[in-house]
Amino acid sequence: MLFGRKNRKPISIPSKKVEQWKYTTCNYCSTGCSIEIGLDTNKKVVTTRGHAGADVNRGKLCIKGILEHELFDSPGRGSEPLIRDKHYEAFEKTSWDNALDVTSDKIKSIQAQYGKDSFAIVSSGQLMTEEFYTLGKLARGCIGTNNYDGNTTLCMASAVSGYKRSFGSDGPPGCYDDFEHTHCFMAFGSNLPEQHPIIYWRLKEALEKRKFPLIVVDPRVTMLAQFADIHLPITPGTDCVLINAMMFVIINEGLQDQAYIDAHTQGFDEVKALVQDYDPKSAQHICGIDEDTIRNVARIYAKAPAAMSIWTMGINQSTHGSDGVANINNLNLITGNIGKPGGTSLSITGQCNAMGTREWSSCSGLPGYRYLENADDRQEIADFWGIDPEFFPKKRGLAETDIFPAIETGEIKGMWIVATNPMTSMPNTARIRKALEKLDFLVIQDVYEDVETNQYSHVYFPASVWAEKEGCHTNTERRVNLISNVLPPYANSKPDFWIFNEMAKRFDNGKVINFPETPEGAFNEMKQLSKGKGRTLDISGMTYEKLVKAKGIQWPYRERKREENCEQDNEAPESLKGDPRLYTDGKFQTKSGKANLLPIKFFNNNEQPCQDFPFWLNSGRVVEHFHTRTRTGKIGNCNKFSPTAYMEMNPDAANELGITHQSYVRLTSRRGDAVVMVQLTQRVPRNMVFIPFHFFDCVNRLTLGLLDPHSRQPAFKQCAVQIETVDQVEAARLNVERRAF
């Protein structure tokens, strides 16, 4: 008998008869897993599986990838273009031509009345690279606004800024293969098992083959911290202090790689002088890690034959995010751990194609890591596109986090939001809501009609999803991979590439600039623009055919690589591998060719717990959801594990406030409030709570919009809240209402 039943119900695995497997790449996180989509005899998608021959995931998938095929028929998808005069009126269906005509006319009229930069465009890390390139061509070359950015400002901007400051260029210098070679692994604010499960599996596999120290720096006892040899529960936002103290130990004990420093870096004397103010005895009182542990970790890291650091949002989402990245780079440069197997600074990217945004979208500059501030770069792209270089601005415009405040001041009158959901993802969402209500014109382009930000739009463009399109992604380790077109677009939705091309036809420069009709045509343009002496971002040797054959190729992968390594008609497998690491020759993208060692002084400008708001608020990801649940909230077997907003809270702190497990509470910050269900756990310290960031009208009602001065990225993870009990019946009603999103 089992729980009162005499007959156990047998497990039944439904038969999914697959007639054909089609190759593609996962469209969730930045890991870059190769996927095969299974179609039955009726050409209907019935399942997905990991591709065993792919180097990235080797047949493995996380829960999101396993269930990704359910996206095609998920509820809430947009089927027709929609239009209305006021955001509070009901939508009416319209034709694509009318929706595009109205939008282009409104853009032109707003720009004619208020100036070119009065219309803003905000995109996403979820598009294909060819779509990014085409949108950048449209925004920079046709519409002409300088206020154009992507939601990668919310996740990867600090990594980009830190790489540029240290190495002279963006681009992660390491790769997943470094796990196989490292002798010490240090993770800053990165919870791989839940954020990037397949990358964690690669790390775990490496640890099983050859044990090396695993050090995790995180204020919360994350899943990765539970597996660590050493867990450093740091005070939020003080990573720079910890790293400076580590460098104090390394330099004062003579553990640095002085030969590498002298040959390949500049600025060592300034860093050496600065870290003298961060001896572990004083640093421990700021960062919360005792001095003996700081000394121990510093010695382990410096003495390892090869050591590597990774980080994710725990570093990036801070007022010190860019400084934190630059300081991680400092740590690896002074120990000689850049450009060699097992030695690297590897930012673990957030979205599936955030790297593609950084490379080709023209958000922060021009295609291929070119700068608006560089006259030669402006001239080169203008010549390639066939327009006057004076059409380009001479410096970057507003970042996404500055665009929304510019609506409040009247500088921005209209906006086009593509595949992102700021009503859930931006900090201080009450302020975002008011800003969107103030816009004269808002266009939302998204797969889902019911995305929260669409509440405030005047025109809605229904976009196709994932393998209803074709194009490339670039993953965390610079690996370009292909998303093959498996199905036709849903209903009357259209690929983003098509939408951008059609919009370009409605602007004068769209008749001058060549807009290829196919994504592969755009890819060929990108290949041409990637060529150049000393350019790291070189994809000129790639083709769609090669990408599928290799299951992804890392850049740089130059045209001459084929000529050197293989015959014309008999391409050897080794010739389909790009360069796994950057800066292996010790030459960097700075004017001097040397990496910059930067003295990072810590300024404690975080919002911190106080008598009125006694708890740190931390936020992050859970494995079954992705970003704002726009997609995973629609997938039953993803959503059922975390269907409602919850908060991790220490039992001792809860006991003091009379709060019980699975009850509802109300949190209040200086900006707003949120109601969540309590999960009591020892994973968080007594003065901290943790809330997943995926849920609408929840944690980002509380977070503050303080920005990193270099990257303009918000400090999502450092703010203070108070907690109080709440009417349980009313809270439950509110919870059910919000679960509809």
Automatic annotation (TrEMBL):
Coiled coil stretches, renumbered: none
User: What ranges does the record give for the region Disordered, renumbered to this chain?
Assistant: 560-583
Q: Name one Pfam family in it.
A: Molybdop_Fe4S4
PROSITE patterns given in the database record: 4FE4S_MOW_BIS_MGD, MOLYBDOPTERIN_PROK_1
InterPro entries recorded for this chain?
Answer: Asp_de-COase-like_dom_sf (IPR009010), CT_Nitrate-R-NapA-like (IPR041957), MoPterin_dinucl-bd_dom (IPR006657), Mopterin_OxRdtase (IPR006656), Mopterin_OxRdtase_4Fe-4S_dom (IPR006963), MopterinOxRdtase_cofactor_BS (IPR027467), Prok_molybdopt-oxidoreductase (IPR050123)
The record places domain 4Fe-4S Mo/W bis-MGD-type at 19-76
Tell me the first and last residues of the signal peptide. none
Which superkingdom does the taxonomy of this entry point to? Bacteria
Q: Where is the composition biased (Basic and acidic residues)?
A: 574-583
Query: Which terms are listed as keywords in the entry?
Result: 4Fe-4S, Iron, Iron-sulfur, Metal-binding, Molybdenum, Nitrate assimilation, Oxidoreductase
- Quote the SMART domains the UniProt record gives: Molybdop_Fe4S4
Q: Which cofactor does it need?
A: Mo-bis(molybdopterin guanine dinucleotide); [4Fe-4S] cluster
**Family stated for the protein in its record:** Belongs to the prokaryotic molybdopterin-containing oxidoreductase family. NasA/NapA/NarB subfamily.
Cross-referenced PANTHER family, in alphabetical order? NADH-QUINONE OXIDOREDUCTASE SUBUNIT G, RESPIRATORY NITRATE REDUCTASE
Official protein name in the record:
Nitrate reductase
